[in-house]
Amino acid sequence: MFRAFDWQDLIPLAKGAWLTIQLCAMSGILGIIFGLILGIARTSPSRIARWISTIYISCVRGIPILVIIFFIFFGIPLLFPGLELDKFASAVIALTCFAAAYVAEIVRGSIEAVPRGQSEAADALGLNYWAKLRYVVMPQARKIMVPPGVGFIIGLVKDSSLVTVTGLVELTHAGNIVTNLTGDPIMTFLTVAAMYFVICYSISLLGRLYEKRTGIQVDPLKLPEPASV
Amino acid sequence: MALYFGDLLPFSSLLLEGLWTALYITLVAMVAGSALGVFLYLGKVGPGKAVSIFCSCYIEAIRNTPLLVQLYLIYFALPALGINLEPIWAAVIGLTLNNAAYTAEIYRAGFESVPHGLREAGKALGMKNAQIVRYIVLLPATRNVFPALTNQLILLFLASSIGSIISLPELTNAIMSVSNTTYRTIEVLAVGGLLYLGVSALLSLASKRAETTLFRWAVGARV
Question: Which of A198, A164, A174 is nearest to A65 (CA)?
Fold first, then answer.
């Protein structure tokens, strides 16, 4: 009935791993862009911008990513009946929504970690808000963001395994398919776990390399603070 | 399309039971996992070289692989070895083993962030290692560890939703089954999302309150 797990089964798993990497790269980049906007809004002088971003960040961080994935995958076709999204697109949207909130918290934390005197000095020089952000605060905040950012990307790779519920054949789903073919869940999922390990561990090694070259302390284990409401 | 929440009313007890299951496995996994984490941390920093390498490998392996794959290994791979687990036990064991690795790292970070000068001062006073840990390092380390542990509790509660994929009838599973019965997908996802949000907000508020009460002595003097 079943055949043994052999090297041929590595091919669908490797394809799944490649899809996982593409998924994380796209949602990671989009998440960083939206997260930067949200994080800056979260610390901006405009009260409305602060409120909107605070509500968004708190909501997303208080709901499991699995529920967000279900909401995007099943909810968007119901809310916008004309809109047709393929599985990959809805997975990217779900992971981006999720990533943006967590990146925004990292950005907020880093902006607040820049000593207040820096921003006061910029005020004293007569710089306006955007110039202050562009030339004084962000260059310093950028360095503080890197270590938790590395930890966040590793978290994104791990959380991307949950889009398996939409039927998108990423690494975990490929593992399911290979298990059904071979009837050998032990070897299959140990291989899947090893592939995730290689992806995540390479990211944390890259983070450490960056630390060595720039002198920034990178602790990829650091997680963002909990949702505060 | 019009939203209508009335169809969900007959299923409110199903949703609440799901929430209860989610809370239950979260609490069990938090207590068991943070206890196991103590041993992992002690094993990692302890004198035994083999034990230390084993604990480090365990921590790295857990922290660099998805919880879902760990649950699959427990729920689908263990039966191949002759060990059959109910979904709830698979979820509890999976979350506990996962949580242990994260809490071990929290303890490590908490103890490492206590300034080295405190230990040296203890040594200069002629204290033994055990005395230094008990009377000098333990209290500030606890203060450092506490917020990270409550953060971990909230993350664990949200992670318990992954149990639905191995057909554990917790909140996310209840949400999806109500959605399949009533076709009120958006409504039930909104209600379920609000339940998750409410509980994690409560947990967050409670832990802030506990932190200020427990560590009033350390206000403004973070060590």
Answer: A164
